[in-house]
Amino acid sequence: MSPRTTDRILFWLEQLRRDIRFSLRSLAKSPGYSLTVLFTLILGIGVATVIFEITDWILFRDQPFPRPAELYSIGYKDKQGTESYYQAGLFLKAYQEQTDAFSEIIAGSPQMANVVVRGDPDPQLVLAVSPGFFSNLGIVIARGRPFLPAEYKEGAGDVVVISDLFWHGRFAGDKEILGKSVKIDQTTCTIVGVLAPGQAVPPNFYSGIFRPLIYKLNPADVFNPGLTMLARLKPGVTKAVAVSQISAVKLPQIPQWASAYFADEKPILTGIVDASRPEIFWVLFAAAAFLFGIACLNVANLVLIRLLGRRHEISIRFAVGASRWRVVLLLAVESLLLSLSSVLTILAAARWLFPAIFNFLYGTTDYWFNNYWDWRTIACIGCLGVFASLVTALVPALRIMRADINSGLKDGAPNMAEGRRGGKARNVLVVVQAAFAVILLTGTGLMVRSFERLHSLDLGFDPVGKVKAWVIFPPGYNPPNEARLQLFERLRERMVTLPGVKAASYGQDTLFMGAFYGTAQLQMADGSFRPVAGNFVPADYADTAGLTMVRGRWLSGKRGQTEVVINQELAKQRFGDKDPIGQFIKIQVAIGTPFQVVGVVRDVRETTRAPAGMHLYSPDWMYPPNIDTLILRMDKDPPAAFAGTVRRAIYQIDPRLIISDVASINENVERTMGQENFAFKVMKGLAVIALGLTIVGLFSVIAFAVSSRMTEFGIRMAVGATPKNIRSLIFGRGILFAAVGVAIGVSGGVALTRFMQGMLFETSPFDPAVYVCVTILLLTSATAACAVPARRAARADVIRLLKSS
């Protein structure tokens, strides 16, 4: 390097050092401006980074499994159109033996179990997995080994592999974990492996404990075990060919009623790549992009105001010989310092604060163990910071390149290069900001309407104070029918002694089950059979659950009387306009036994999304093995700690029972809208931030316009305009451009919010009430933003302004 080049580099470095020192002093003299810009950039970049972290795994990363495009979940669709990916185990062997479209079929059987670690019992989801589960999906075992082939044989599967999260949560990351034991449903199992930290598993295969799947068909219990299945297509085989093959499989010899039930199921295949890109994440990503855009526009507005206040200083620099590029560089250094400060703040937050944010959003502390600090996070923050820097540097550069030196030397002169072209730029900023805000607020408003309708949904009974506890009998514990009834009677008696419990009952689950489980086949009037959900319940069930009788009476509870109560949907489908009371129905599993209808109850919804299917209520003594739920009635929904009270009380009666879930009906309703709840929580935060930034942006743009036109206002007032006229002019122009932005935003909202249809409950994406409310809110905000600048313009000192012009 020549001495001349070295001198030039040193000169530029020295000049840069001086510019940085001057910029720091200049920003320190304007703390209001500096803090506002920093806060705006931190909000924009920070929120956009959080949403990127939420959506990155779903929208932009390939599934972390070998050749993910070949992997398909096997499920079925019933006559009601409900999709399920939880199938009876007998299908696994049929698919493996009768199809050749797949190179591998992987299965998992999720079961709730009492897991005891160091004497502390805890209900956990345990997943029994088929051979090849770990190797075929590229799941890394960081410590120990996967299951051996010999461990998939009956009597040899008392080994487990645990997740890294379970290892840290229940064993405190014990380095000597291999070989230690964990008790699962009274069976002591040895830990042989631990998954890698943050190890991903396919949908429907989430668990903290994995066991070998040992499956043997039991024709008397065709639904167990329930399996989730994942298949890998062979090279060159299409999805359509695979669907045709699994649709043609023949099942082994099973009862006729079970064959009829499975005949109504239509097999489906869903690629895990397709299933992992739900629309909700695109909505959140778009919302974050709009919010970041609003933040950048705000920064541009603030930079313009800052430039307006420094017009005299900059014109003097021009007058003493500084080039336009030299001044642009000085202002760019200032903008870069602000952007760099915001980026460093976000980097620190991403390292230390983001886990807490994700814990709040997801409602769990599990995400503390996930890695939210990697090169993608840093790259996202860096790219957003660079973009924001370009915006904050480009705006003053354009102004400086068109600056009028002479006018800037006059005190009170118009802003540099301020004219018709500058006025159009201001108007565009107002319009774009308002449009972005409208789109964000519209999406949030639609979700508000959706949740209002969800919370006012008629479930067919009063859900307040109704609590369900799901009781599971572990493998090997199957008491005789009468003993099972007596056990549930003891549980019922214990439940009514708990604080706040007014009544208790038991039976087969029938209150907001989450899906229609029509496993029985009802003989219709024309002799055909259709699926019906049979519910075995005692005589006190209706009063405890809050079922409403429409006609007839409830079950008498007398042994030997084969009576049933049906719901309105069954009455309509089976009997039409005829009175069903006293009529008889037949079920395929007991075709020789007629059941007399003694009553009709209101339909009870299984889900929020679909109307009720056909249900019948039978006496509990007819088939006790299906009884699996305790129902408690209280005056109000209990606190979260009540679940522990119920579990402890049941444990005192029979410690072998597994209580997998204790929750109020209202809590179950909220769970069914889990993704929507999550999106609603995020969208509310984005909307509040967007509205605040929009008000600040509107205020800054209007204040900028007023400052640049103060001489004009002085002239207007000198020739007779009143302060009221000036205020009307400011309000009129501000609201006009805000209204144009609202109109554009509404058009964009109509186009974009249609993608939210799947997230909305009984709410149209074109709901006029939402658009009207958003329009009023934005115009009101625009009016408020105009108030201070309009008052300033109306109080203009005419004499001083005319002297300076």
Q: Total domains, how many?
A: 4
What structural class do the secondary elements suggest?
A: alpha+beta
Strand content: 15-25%
Shape: elongated
- Overall pLDDT: 80
Uncertain spans, ≥5 residues at pLDDT below 50? 365-370, 408-419
The largest β sheet comes out as: 7 strands, mixed
Number of strands: 23
Tally of helical runs = 25
User: Approximately how much helix is present in the residues?
Assistant: 40-55%
Radius of gyration: 34 Å
Note the gap between the termini. 54 Å
For this entry, give a set of tags.
single chain, 805 residues, alpha+beta, 6-stranded mixed β-barrel, 25 helices, elongated
Structure notes:
The protein is an alpha+beta fold and 805 residues long. Helices cover 50% and strands 18% of the residues. It is built from 25 helices and 23 strands. Strands 15, 16, 17, 18, 19, 20 and 21 form a 7-stranded mixed sheet that branches. Strands 4-5-10-7-9-8 form a 6-stranded mixed barrel. The two termini are 54 Å apart. Residues 365-370 and 408-419 have low confidence and may be disordered.
